[in-house]
Design a protein that fits this description.
772 residues; mainly beta; 24-stranded antiparallel sheet; five-stranded mixed sheet; 6 helices; globular
């Protein structure tokens, strides 16, 4: 899933979301594996071919997927790498926009200012936000970002990154409890004490039927002491113009977004074998209104619904090299604050008419969080027949939830009643992995293990029966509920590397996600019939075979894998209607199903017939379905007290297909100027969300599964194009267009009218880039 154009940029596809469905049969994959084996066998008796001297060169890509620097070609994991130079060219958005076109990845939008849920191979959280942690580990410069009760992750700035690595399949051995079925590693460029460099990009864009967007980013690397000390500073500011009108509050192009970022990295090398990296990252995201729309208008919003997300991430990493191994310590802290205003007039079932839908119907959520983590790792040298690593991990996290909704919980906007609770987790883990090579490094056997322990719980503050002096209007009773979880997650891999252009592997790996106490609202609020116990941890087992390599003197690159997933004690959505004298409101709960399972395939083919021309496609398909009916307990659950999730039905928010296709061509205009044209298309099949008690008032719903309500998204199909001219002084002007076909369907299931998320309409932009 990588290639290299004439400029030396390690590249996946051009940035843009996904295109055609390619149904790949098992026979097709088997043929590809046999061709890999045949090519490898022919190469066994002679040295591997030298790097192509023709037009189709494919350079080596270095990754840290296994927590050591090594060639992507040798890593026995299905991995996609997005190169930093290509990310710098992205016209709008951040890392999550780049991930949208990555094979088998799905993102779900939110109204929580710059926060998005990411899933891999159809393994998605029960509900995108509020009822469980993420199923994908999300790391920013080694800092693990995950929340106890939310699957949301930040949309970090994409400028001056070295790479984004996407690891498919469970990574529980090396990455821990949040990497149930994959990991996203975002790596920024380190400060370089050897030389000065600087670069910048500025751009503007206009959206059809919407406002003007603009952005600017800059980076400077300054050696303070030659080869000993350097700083690297990155700043960015982006305004994304809106395109949605809200007539009830008199706003046009209301859904604007403003993002600012500041990143500082310090590299200290006091002696030859000691390296100290310090990182500070500040991000601010203001979303004036979420991207809800029906034909460009949001008719169901009656009060302004902005959201603000701020986070500060700090990391200190010390690496000391010994003759036989390296020792590293990485300490990180994340401080996150979110304030989200949500118009709940469409969700609170009352007799109120439109004139009564005022600020009393606005849910105000304040969601601060702090995360402290430490990882100590010993990593052997890559030389010799044995490679090993061992480490210890510690994490201390608490997430607060402070919410008010006067129309339902009472009080006034000035002095509302509220709920206030805290989720906490303290995690420790011990892990190790060992690899033995045979036959001059042509065969490898790897075995690893992680021993994980978690103490987690939920604590409510104050209450009617035990009011807190600092929070006298809290209506939830004082309570504390805690539990423990532990797991051992193994990994076993057998690899065959007959030459430097071919890798075949078979792997068994296990992912784990910790348990969760139920939302205090759904348990404690008078009127709730929810009687489910706390959600138990879930576990995912993955059996996989794969092949990656280069064929015919690098003319073809490929990466293919076929897998079987068994997801045990799956955490699923148990949404409940909680009612009182004011009406009813849906509140999230989490239930455990028996299991889900299915086979899947990932396939990437790239073609590089001559210098400058690259084209190819990627396709992913997964057959993940529930293995048994899921019946929540509780009186009156579901119209017929029937199963919420049925045997053979797909799991929520889980698309069956993703795919994309691309072509780009580079050529010289003259001795001073080069040109490049790119076209890409992307596709994602529909997602379905199932609710057992939400009123049937959303968009695209149907009754299913014994009278429950199913909501379906559209199937986003997007086409992007770009044309750029660059000179030999590292200056580039780039024209681009996104969503050329103006696709305007639902991106995620809309369970009420004011959650109809849409993609940005057809947009045209220009960007200037310079490097010094």
């Amino acid at each position: 899933m990588y290639g290299k154009d004439h400029s030396g940029i390690a590249r996946p596809r051009p940035l843009g979301r996904s295109a055609h469905i390619y149904k790949i049969s098992g026979m097709t994959l088997a043929g590809l594996l046999m061709m890999s084996a045949s090519t490898a066998a022919l190469a066994q008796s002679a040295p591997a071919a030298a790097a192509s001297t023709g037009s189709s060169t494919v350079g080596e890509v270095i990754v840290t997927a296994q927590k050591r620097s090594e060639s992507l070609q040798k890593v026995p994991i299905s991995v996609t790498v997005l190169g930093g130079k290509l990310l710098d060219k992205q016209g709008q958005g951040g890392t999550l926009e780049a991930l949208q076109q990555t094979p088998s990845i799905t993102t779900s939008m939110s109204d929580a200012g710059g926060m998005t849920q990411v899933s891999i191979r159809g393994v998605a959280p029960a509900i995108a936000f509020g009822d469980g942690s993420t199923t994908v580990g999300y790391y920013v410069d080694g800092v693990p970002f995950s929340l106890v009760r939310s699957a949301a992750v930040p949309n970090t700035d994409d400028y001056d990154l070295s790479s984004i690595e996407v690891l498919r399949g469970p990574q529980g051995t090396l990455y821990g409890a949040t990497s149930l079925n994959g990991v996203v590693n975002i790596n920024t460029n380190d400060a370089n004490p050897s030389h000065f460099d600087a670069k910048a990009r500025v751009g503007a864009a206009t959206t059809e039927g919407g406002g003007l967007s603009y952005r600017g980013d800059a980076e400077v690397n300054i050696p303070i002491i030659q080869d000993k000390l350097a700083i690297r500073l990155v700043v960015g500011d982006e305004h994304e113009g809106g395109w949605i009108n809200i007539p009830n509050i008199g706003q046009k192009n209301a859904n604007t977004t403003d993002d600012t970022t500041l990143r500082l990295k310090i590299d200290i090398r006091p002696i030859d074998n000691l390296k100290i990296d310090l990182t500070a990252w500040n991000s601010h995201d203001l979303e004036a209104e979420p991207a809800f729309a029906i034909n460009g208008i949001q008719p169901y919003t009656y009060v302004a619904s902005p959201s603000v997300t701020n986070y500060n991430a700090y990391n200190g990493k010390i690496v000391y090299d010994l003759p036989f191994a390296s020792i590293s310590s990485s300490t990180s802290y994340i401080g996150l604050s979110q304030t989200v205003f949500t118009d709940y007039s469409a969700e609170v079932t009352t007799n109120a008419n439109a004139n009564e839908k005022t600020a009393n119907y606005e849910l105000i959520s304040r969601l601060p969080a702090s995360i402290l983590s430490e990882e100590f790792l010993i990593n052997s040298r890559n030389s010799g027949p044995w490679r090993w690593q061992a480490g210890v991990f510690y994490r201390d996290e608490h997430n607060d939830v402070f919410q008010t909704l006067p129309a339902f919980w009472g009080g006034t906007v000035a002095a509302p009643n509220n709920d206030y609770f805290r989720d906490e987790t303290i995690q420790t883990a011990y892990f190790g992995e060992i690899t033995r090579t045979f036959d001059d490094d042509h065969f490898e056997v790897t075995a690893g293990l992680r021993d994980f322990h978690d103490r987690y719980g939920t604590h409510t503050f104050g209450g009617v029966n035990n009011p807190s002096p600092s929070n006298p209007l809290q209506f939830l009773d004082y309570d504390s509920q805690y539990a423990t979880a532990s797991a051992v997650t193994p990994r076993f891999v057998v690899s065959w590397l007959p030459n430097r252009d071919t890798t075949l592997y078979a792997t068994y790996s296990v992912g784990f996600r910790s348990g969760l106490e139920q939302n205090p609202l759904v348990v404690s609020e008078p009127g709730s019939s929810f009687t489910e116990p706390p959600a138990n941890p879930d576990t995912l087992k993955n059996y996989e075979i794969g092949a990656k390599g280069r064929l015919f003197d690098n003319v073809i690159t490929y990466d293919a894998s076929v897998y079987y997933i068994k997801w045990l004690d799956i955490q699923e959505n148990g949404e409940q209607q909680v009612c009182n004298a004011a009406g009813c409101v849906p509140v999230g709960g989490t239930i455990n199903g028996k299991s889900a399972s299915g086979t899947g395939i990932d396939l990437s083919l790239g073609f590089h017939p001559f210098r400058g021309l690259n084209f190819g496609f990627d396709v992913s398909e997964n057959g993940l379905v529930n293995d048994a009916n899921v019946y929540p307990s509780g009186v009156g659950v579901g119209p017929n007290n029937g199963a919420v999730y049925v045997k053979g039905g797909r799991t929520p928010y889980s698309p069956q297909y993703t795919g994309d296709a691309y072509v780009d061509y580079s050529w010289s205009l003259n001795e001073q100027l080069d040109a490049k044209a790119s076209l890409s298309a992307s596709y994602r099949s529909q997602e379905v969300a199932i609710y057992n008690s939400v009123q049937a008032t959303g968009i695209g719903y149907s009754f299913c599964n014994n009278g429950n309500v199913c909501y379906s998204s559209g199937s986003p199909t997007l086409v992007n194009a770009s044309f750029e001219i660059s000179n030999h002084n590292n200056q580039t002007v780039r024209l681009y267009a996104t969503n050329l076909t103006n696709w305007n369907g639902l991106t995620t299931p809309a369970y009420v009218e004011n959650t109809a998320f849409r993609d940005r309409p057809r947009t045209f932009g220009i960007q200037f880039e310079a490097k010094y």
